[in-house]
Amino acid sequence: MFRGSCLCGSVRYEVRGCLGRATHCHCSMCRKAHGAAFATYGRVQSTDFMFTSGADGIASYQSSPEVTRTFCKRCGSTLQFISTKRPGSFSLALGTLDDDPGIRSFEHIFVGSKAPWFDIADGLPQHSTRP
Description:
By secondary structure, the protein is mainly beta. The protein has a single domain, classed as Metal Binding Protein, Guanine Nucleotide Exchange Factor, Chain A (Beta Complex). 5% of the residues lie in helices and 40% in strands. It is built from 1 helix and 10 strands. A 7-stranded mixed β-sheet has the order 6-7-8-9-4-3-10. The longest helix is centred in the N-terminal third of the chain and has 7 residues. It starts with a strand and ends in a 22-residue tail after the last strand.
């Protein structure tokens, strides 16, 4: 099990299972949602995830027809990327983790639209779109 929270600490959660592959996403929507060069997400089975406090402080935004993003209403921390294409699971914003989940990022995706001011300097595989 590992835990996470938003910036202000009002939303807290637990994951009681393993995370799937972690990915750095460089698409423009993830960059804007995170205010950073990329967003790092890990796949979580919905049955392994539970909000332990602050669930009423979560808002959502439909960023595309098949994707809903959740965030803390108070501080704006991005929490989840929920796609209708992957029922039963979602992508968790790994920057909100308080504990080490024991995994590391596997790849960079959507580097075809990455921020021009950021150079990828690690040896992870890079994909122009989603592989």
